[in-house]
Structures are given as structure tokens and as C-alpha cells.
Amino acid sequence: MTNPEFDKKFGEECGIVGVYDPNGDVSRLAFYGIYALQHRGQESAGIASADGHKIKLRTGMGLVTHVFKDEDLDYLTGDIAIGHTRYSTTGTSNIKNAQPIVVDGGNFKLAIAHNGNVVNSLELKREMEELGYDFNTSSDSEVIAKIVSNAPASTWEGRIAYLMRKVQGAYSLTLMTEKELIAVRDPLGVRPLCFGKVNGGWIIASESCALDNVGAKYVREVNPGEAIIFDSQGYKSIYQKDMEKCSFCVFEHIYFARPDSEIDGKLVYKSRLLMGKELAREHPVEADMVIGVPDSATASAVGYSEESGIPFGEGLVKNRYVGRTFINPDQRMREVGVKVKLNPLRELIQGKRLVVVDDSIVRGTTSKPVVSLLRNAGASEIHLRICAPPIKFPCHFGVDFPTRKELIAANNSIDEIKDTIEADSLGYLSHAGLLKAVKAEESNVCMGCFTGNHPIPVQLEMDKLSLEV
Ligand code: SF4
Question: CATH homologous superfamily of domain 15-244?
């Protein structure tokens, strides 16, 4: 039981920010930055600040607005701050694993905020424990922090080169010492990271919506394998690993990122709109109205409607204030959860043949209650259209998908899934259709959960092994 939220299909990841602004209120800028990234994780939040001499830290469990009061932000003074919202993908959900994490690097203290998942963290941790290093948390982010702060190098360039040699997997990072702010993105570029100019300083964030939130001007993405340092001189790229291949997570476009973010050079809303258009071409059907399961599928439903000519309508209203619950995620509660979260507009859907667009199907356990909700509200036909190909494999890069055993598409044909969720028809977007919508080549994105071709081959082997036993 890894996901304590009964109404969510899978855990999201984490959101990170970094701020350098000697004349600004860095803790409040970091606060509004992580507030804009709340959708990437709701378990815990934290901000660390640095004033040239020391690092101060505040972390807490829950939403950003629950964790921080004015007095916390007043306490977090300095020229630099980093912030984090967490959804636990490794390590248990407790305050010890909340980030930023601060470690001692001998000549400096290092605070770190991490989005992603290190696939060889257990091995690295064991190696370091044998050398006498202690760990205070069960998170892979502490492993990264200890590797960087104990790297056999005296420059940042050397430390980052060491980090990228040792650590495998997904890591977008903001790092902060008492005097410096550094952004780092793993050589595969799995998770997003961008930066912009704010007031007289700089802000780094997982998604550009956080830059917009604080009135920053977008500059560019941190490149895969790049490290950038921010100081009074501006920003400077201090390390760039030779690019082998990029493996940006295509699920950022489908579900994780906010539609108003620009990632990988594309507006997420636009990518989703194009997914809907592709879906309409691949899986046409006669119907009276297209609706989206709010919020992530709304843009795709608009796209389906534009391409098919079937009118778009609002058929489901979402209660936006349904937050985390601590109810066990069993089937009965998932069904209750869908009712709490979504309410059908009976008058609009009564007697109509509906195309219902959703972002993905993971276990299938939330799709079935959505279909029955609409049927009970009077829909005469329900044709489910999914903006992603069938999810057949787990993710090793920071997304909390269930095991293969629980993934409905790993164990059932599309027809069987249609029958299980009791839809009249079911159509998934093809691999080619998805790539066309996000304007990417398969060699430049990760599609591991659909194809099993994860960007780090050793993980694929492990997957196959675990399937065979
Ligand atoms: S396996 Fe899927 S969710 Fe994980 S990084 Fe790859 S595309 Fe994203």
C-alpha cells in the first residue's frame, strides 16, 4: 500500500524550486513557487534559506499552506532559498524524509531538494555505509546529498561530474550552500527543470507555472546533464555532460505537469489538445457530446471535440477541495472517493451518447466508478477514450505506479478492460499518436511504462526477472 489517497490513480512526484535574490524576499518567493507546484506532491513541504553564513530550515507534513505561517517565512531570511513539495516515491512518508535535506559537507553545509528517483541508491548507500557514513533518512535524496558533499573534488564542476558518474536514474535538483545556488538535471533529463529571472535575481523550478506565479521571466530549461550556478554575476553553466540520449518522461505531458506549464519547449495544454485530436482520428465514434474527466483530460476532450465535430460539454464537476485522506485505498473507498470528487451534470448528459476522455487507466478501479456515475446520471452510451497507450510496466523514475500485477493493461486485453469497466467502447491513444502529439521521437522520451523500454537497461532486466519469478 504505497498510495494513501483513495481517489488518486498514482502518486505524483515532487516539485522543487530555488531562488537567488539578494534584494528580494527569498522565502516568500520560494513559498509561492512551491505553492504553484502543489499538484506534484502533497505529503510534505519545506523551505531552506541561506544568508551567506548559515542555513535555516522549516519542513512539515501536509500542504504548502498548512506547513508555512508568516512567522516561518519571516524566520527564513537570506539571499538564497530552496523549496520542495514531496510525494514519497522512495522512503516512507514521515517528517524525517521531508525536504529540503541539509547535510554537512565539511567546509560547507549543503541543502538539497530533489525530484526523481535514483535507481542505484541502495547500492550507493551500502557502499557509503561501509565507509562509515551515517544516514538519517530512508530517502534516495540523502544519498545524492552525501555523494555531492563528500565528492573527491574541490570545485563544483568536479563534484557534479562525480555525482553524474556515480548516480543512475532521475534527478532534477536544487542545491544550496551558505553562499551558492545550483541547479542540476540528470543526463537523461527525465524530470523537467527550468529557470527564469525575477526582480534582480533568479528562480529555478520544476515547471514554468511556478515562474509565472512569482512574475518571473522564463529564460530556459536546464539541459539534461547540465549544472548551472546562480550568483550576483548572473548564471553560469558550470558543467555539461556529453549527451548520450534524452529520456524525458512523456507522462509529464499526459498527466503530471500543469496545463499552463511549458515543458520540453511545448505548452502542456497544447500537447493535451493534440492528444485529443489524435484520439479522435484513431478512435472515431458516433456520439452527442464529448466530456473530459477533470482536470487533466479537459484539454484532450476539447481536442477530440474539435477534430470530430462532436460538441464539447462539461459533464462532470470536480470538487476542487478534496485533498488527502487517510482512508485505506480499497475498492469500496475508491468508489466513494470518485463520488466525493466528481459530480455529474445530470441535466446535460441525460439520454446522451457520451465520449468520455480520460488521461490514463492504471488499475481500472477509478474508471469503473466514473462510467457507472455517468450511466446512473442518464447517459445512454459511454465511449471511453484514453490519452495514453495502455500502461503495462512500472516506473523506476519517480512515479508511484503499482506493480505489474495491479496494472490492468498488463494482464488484460483492451476488450477485457472495456468489459471490466463496463464502457460501451474503449480506445487508447497509440504510441505513434502520442509521439506525434508531443512532437517527439521515441529515442528522445521515456515511454517505459508503455513499452517496457526503460532508459536504463539494467532496470528492464530487473523487471523481466521479477516477472519470471
Ligand atoms: S516509465 Fe512512464 S512515468 Fe516513468 S519516467 Fe518513463 S514515461 Fe514517465
Answer: Aminohydrolase, N-terminal nucleophile (Ntn) domain (3.60.20.10)
